[in-house]
Design brief:
Strand content: 25-35%
CATH topology of the largest domain: Rossmann fold
Number of strands: 12
Structural class: alpha/beta
Distance between the termini: 43 Å
Largest sheet: 7 strands, mixed
CATH class of the largest domain: Alpha Beta
Number of helices: 9
Shape: globular
CATH superfamily of the largest domain: Vaccinia Virus protein VP39
Number of domains: 2
Helix content: 25-40%
Strand order of the largest sheet: 8-7-6-9-10-12-11
CATH architecture of the largest domain: 3-Layer(aba) Sandwich
């Protein structure tokens, strides 16, 4: 069906392609201390968050990203109790972590408090209940500095960052990952979003080469998220003790998920040949 191209569209141009959502109106437009935050009401996908011109999430599609960054590592760990979330200011990653009965503490380190404040107003399904859960510690500040200085130890660290940029580029460095490794408990796991293989193969390749010098086990897994360039997105799992393929957490019985299940857990690790070539 043809669309009226004179209507309003929110568009992200990424390299040689573009993705657009038909919008009804702009709800928010302001520069925080760190980035330009825009919120749109779309016609079909609920509210849309845009940071520095890049699409972050829509209400209708966000479940894929948040379930996959969280549940694969937390089910691969035998008893995830202490979790560190770096980034993820929209609250969705913390929301999913809290679904695990084993979890006793979530330290939530987000550099831009304005993202969380905006999410509380425009993305209530992501933030609802977070402030009433005593397990969550809100630690607004620089995740790179936090990891370098904290004395805490964690079972799982989740790095829910934006694309490499001025404010998030440090989350892709050797120093950051070496510091992160120091604050892992035995059987510790780190998972980071690691861009899309169709458009960012060099980023994934560099990251995996770097991580293989720091951790003994480095794996890539995929999910299909319409909001991001090409729709194919990757996450990187690292550990010195555990592989991601085994579901070890038998205590967390979670109902109502929309993407993740036992088959997806294992299937996400099965990579196309061109992706295998990227991480060789």
């Amino acid at each position: 069906m043809k669309k009226n191209l004179n209507k309003n569209w929110a568009t992200e141009v990424y390299k040689d392609t573009a993705l657009s959502y038909e919008i009804e109106k702009k709800l928010y437009d302001k520069k925080s201390k760190f980035q330009h935050i825009e919120i749109y009401k779309t016609k079909e996908r609920g509210n849309l968050m845009v940071l520095d011109g890049c699409f972050m999430l829509t209400e209708k599609e966000e479940f894929v990203y948040h379930e996959m960054i969280v549940h694969l590592p937390l089910f691969a760990h035998p008893n995830p109790r202490k979790i560190l979330v770096i980034g993820g200011g929209d609250g969705g990653t913390v929301r999913e972590v809290l679904k695990h009965k084993t979890v006793k503490q979530v330290d939530f380190v987000e550099i831009d408090e304005d993202v969380y404040k905006v999410s509380k107003k425009y993305f209530k399904t992501l933030t609802s209940g977070l402030e009433n859960d005593e397990r969550v510690n809100f630690l607004f500040g620089d995740g790179i500095k936090f990891v370098a200085e904290t004395k805490n130890k964690y079972d799982v660290i989740l790095i829910d960052s934006t694309d490499p940029s001025d404010i998030s580029g440090g989350l892709f460095t050797d120093e950051f990952y070496r510091n992160s490794k120091k604050i892992l408990n035995k059987n510790g796991i780190i998972v980071a979003q690691s861009e899309g293989p169709f458009y960012d193969a060099p980023v994934i390749n560099r990251l995996h080469k770097r991580l293989k010098n720091i951790f003994s086990k480095v794996y890539l897994y995929l999910a299909y998220i319409p909001t991001y360039p090409s729709g194919c997105w990757s996450f990187t799992f690292v550990s010195d003790d555990l592989t991601p393929d085994i579901i070890r957490n038998k205590k967390s019985k979670i109902k109502g998920l929309k993407y993740y299940n036992n088959d997806i857990h294992k299937g996400a690790l099965l990579l196309p040949e061109f992706v295998k070539e990227i991480i060789k």
